[in-house]
Design a protein that fits this description.
The chain is mostly helical and about 170 residues long. The protein is built from nine helices and no strands. Helix 4 packs across helix 6, helix 7 packs across helix 9 and helix 8 runs antiparallel to helix 9.
């Protein structure tokens, strides 16, 4: 195997999309059985600025923001792809996402603008005076379960509670 073959394979991968240093090394090591050669080629590409963890971090951050993920989930994805904390912090500083606006957008796309306790059917119809205490308690329990479901969804997406708490209030 020639160094030119490894370099060509690396450039082909980088031509398709940005890759982190560790991600590129892993892919190339699977293909070529020469880890030292792969490491030297990848570091050479990094010195030539053909591979940049910073560019990759910013690209990944923008992609995850478009998908509606919050800061915790994005940081975890970045760590899993071999980015260090300084690259992650620099990417966040460069992009400056508005987590509150993103959380509101994600919340409204998933749940609409209907408040947690509002009935799904006719919004103008109020039967609370007709219903007894059991029906009111069941409605409160259902509203509590719905609020918990919405909270779990937002936390799964990676948002901190302060980003979406105001959206859960009645």
């Amino acid at each position: 195997m020639r160094p030119a073959d490894v370099r060509l394979a690396a450039l082909n991968l980088l031509a398709r999309r940005e890759h982190s240093l560790s991600e590129l090394q892993t892919k190339l090591c699977r293909r070529f059985d020469a880890p030292d050669l792969v490491a030297s080629i990848v570091h050479e590409l990094q010195r030539e600025n053909l591979q940049s963890d910073q560019r990759y971090a910013e690209s990944l951050l923008r992609q995850r923001l478009q998908r509606g993920y919050g800061p915790a989930r994005i940081r975890q994805d970045m760590r899993e792809r071999g980015l260090d904390e300084s690259a992650i912090a620099t990417a966040h500083a460069a992009v400056e996402p508005d987590w509150f606006a993103l959380a509101e957008d994600v919340f409204k796309r998933k749940f609409g603008s209907r408040p947690v306790g509002a009935p799904a059917g006719d919004p103008g119809r109020q039967d609370e005076n007709v219903a007894g205490p059991d029906a009111r308690r069941e409605a409160q329990e259902a509203a509590f379960r719905e609020k918990a479901r919405r909270m779990r969804f937002m936390q799964y997406r990676g948002f901190a509670t302060e980003h979406f708490r105001h959206l859960l209030e009645d």
